[in-house]
Amino acid sequence: MAMLPEEYPVVLTVFPALGARRLSKEGVLTRRITAIETLGATTVLCSDKTGTLTENRMTVTHLVAGGVAVNERLEVPVGGALPESVHPLVEAVILASVVDPFDPMEKAFHQLGQRFLANTEHLHRDWRLVQTYALSPALRAMSHVWSSGSAGVQTVAAKGAPEAVVDLCHLGDRDRGRVEAAVDELAAKGLRVLGVARARFEGQTWPADEHGFDFEFVGLLGLADPVRAEVPAALAECRAAGIRVVMITGDYPATARAIARQAGLADGDVDLLTGDEIAALDDDGLRDRLAAVKVCARISPDQKLRIVQALKARGEVVAMTGDGVNDAPALRAAHVGVAMGHRGTDVARESSSLVLVDDNFASIVRAVRVGRRVFDNLRKAMSYILAVHVPIAGMALLPVLLGWAPLLFPMHIALLELIIDPACSVAFENEPAERDVMHRPPRDAAAPLFGGATLWLALLQGTGVLVVVLLAYGWVSPRIPESEARAFAFATLVTGNLALILSNRSGTGSLWVALRTPNAILWWVIGGALVLLCAALYLPWAVELLRFAPLPAHELAAAFGLGLVSVVWFEAIRRIRIRRPASRQAALRSGGD
Q1: Which helix (H) or strand (E) holds 522?
Q2: What is the pLDDT of residue 584?
Q3: Fewer CB atoms near the end CB (10 Å): N or C, the chain?
Q4: Which contacts of 536-541 are long-range, i.e. CB under 8 A and separated by 24 or more positions?
Q5: pLDDT > 90: percent of the chain
Q6: Spatial contact of 322 and 304, defined as CB atoms under 8 Å apart
Q7: Is residue 124 very low, low, confident or very high in pLDDT (cuts 50, 70, 90)?
Q8: Mean pLDDT of 70-93
Q9: End-to-end alpha-carbon separation of the chain, Å?
Q10: 236 CB contacts (<8 Å, ≥6 apart)?
């Protein structure tokens, strides 16, 4: 009973379960319990832009109309009306959208039409949709074919990435350059830019793809999607925690650069990687290229998987966000897959480890903080369990080996477990996060949960308590009866146990800082332990059962004093424990191993 640290399975079960409960309060649902531990070791966080870094609240703010001449550029007015010259552009983009939209971008187009075209001939509620061409990796544009009732004549409207729409219209170099200049102008403001084209078609034999239509370029629309207010602070917290954030988006590169600057992801020049570059790189080249990249633009879902695999090949611990069906392979491949709760598909959620209830990037950062806290507290509890079992095992074995009268009986150990179990399973779990939890580099994911220096330091702590208890027993045993000496040694052991609890509360701060750190459950456990000890020493039936004798007040005070002497030993060990992580962090900041 003394030798077996049976609390380990309890701790390894309770801490992740309660950690998952804490994560749920931060708006993060846990689907795989191991993800909580992995979060604390994350070194690269790959995040979507739309809806995660931004609010996913699209508003059309700029219009560029007039065909390839792109000579009509205006901001959407707050009040008043739109010029007639841009009405065909708004009409075409609505025709290229679904009738009952759910996507925020298409909702923005319909809202624009209802606001400015409600009493015009440009809204066609009586037209019938007869054919659709969906967005595809080969062509980032979608088209709708509408029948207006005219004999054999259909209207075709297309919208999509500007370069895809330009390709559909088969524009020459000069016209293509004009459109690209207008796109760059809008994208530099952080706007999501879409191109719009229109065509007429006669007959019922539809082309195999959209290139079979004779499209005419209509114009461009710029949509604003504001960055979430809490994102810059969350990104700064990631930098302080040694976590590199990589924004992955399907948007135009200039738009991605502008949003990265607005969010505080990068200052000045942004090291950006495009989908076309990824397609041209082999796996080794992509792995090297991702060494410092912060923004990936025009990325397809299958390229997300390549990004995850390349980062993992670099030895990074990767967290990846995603919401679509095609994101599932990347979510499954990442160490921590994070699906979106609002806009995510069932397939994405089933493939993920965590689900963001509010789709908010800041929630991921809060989850990382919780993950680091859970791991820290788990390690503290495991150190305490090992340390406290050293004196218990020693007191059970050494008197037998040395020919002394037995010090511990099974009932004594059972009584100690009433203190140890709630301390390790509840009190340590409730410890608040260390002050520097988000100002230290990610831990080594390959390092053992409990081993190395932490293991030896715990053994040293336990040995210190054992030495104090044995010296206390050896000091009083010649002077007082055996039962009273046993009670004295037990009181010293309980006090040393409480000192172990307090000493293991913090891995980086001093004992005095730990004493000022609030933890109501911990103080209830300590108070209950003292009440239990007094009951064991002074209740007649308990004294008889435990083979104790009541201690005079001065002996009880001496036992408490000797138990607290171990605090001096713990503080010396603590300085060793604090100095080692500090030197490691300094090495990491300076580029050392």
Answers
A1: helix 520-538
A2: 43
A3: C
A4: 536/415, 536/490, 537/487, 537/491
A5: 35
A6: yes
A7: confident
A8: 80
A9: 42
A10: 264
Q: Whole-model pTM above 0.85?
A: no
Is it the case that residue 530 has pLDDT exceeding 80? yes
Q: Assign 216 to helix, strand or coil.
A: strand
Which residues, other chains included, contact 533 with Cβ-Cβ below 8 Å and sequence gap of 6+?
A: 491, 494
Which residue's entry shows tokens 């054919």?
A: 131
| pLDDT of res. 593 | 35
**Token pair belonging to 441:** 């580099």
Q: Specify whether the CB–CB gap between 432 and 443 falls below 8 A.
A: no
Active site residues: 48
Round to whole Å and give the CA distance between 262 and 255: 11
Q: Which pLDDT does position 165 carry in this prediction?
A: 92
CB contact at 8 A, 223 and 61? yes
Two tokens, residue 238: 């990631």
Q: Is 53 helix (H, G, I), strand (E, B) or coil?
A: coil
Strand partners, 160: 141, 195
Edge-first strand listing for the sheet containing 192-202: 72-75, 59-65, 216-224, 192-202, 153-160, 141-147, 128-133
Summarize the confidence of residues 175-196 as an average pLDDT.
90
How many whole angstroms separate alpha carbon 537 and alpha carbon 492? 12
Q: Which amino acid is at 398?
A: L
Alpha-carbon gap, residue 217 to 234, rounded angstroms: 41
Structure tokens, 196? 């719009």
Q: What pairing do the DSSP bridges indicate for beta strands 59-65 and 153-160? A: unpaired
Return the closest-CA partner of residue 322 out of 81, 51, 56.
51
Q: Tell me which of 170-174, 402-406, 551-555, 587-591 is least confident.
A: 587-591
Return the residue matching tokens 């095609």.
326
Confidence tier at 365 by pLDDT (50, 70, 90): very high
In single-letter form, the type of residue at position 49 comes to K
Distance CA 260, CA 414 (A): 59
Angle, CA of 261, 188 and 226, to the nearest 5°? 60
Which amino acid does the sequence have at 6? Answer: E
Tell me if 441 sits within 8 A of 540, measured CB to CB.
no
Tokens 């016209």, residue located: 175
> Does the pLDDT of residue 240 top 50, yes or no?
yes
Q: What is each CA distance from 11 to 16, 385, 447, 593, in whole angstroms? A: 9, 10, 19, 32
Among left, alpha and beta (phi > 0; psi -120 to 50; other), residue 362 is alpha
Cβ neighbours of residue 83 closer than 8 Å, sequence gap 6 or more: 72, 74
The three-class DSSP label of residue 337 is strand
Whole-number Å distance between alpha carbons of 316 and 325: 25
| Cα gap 29→384, rounded to integer Å | 30
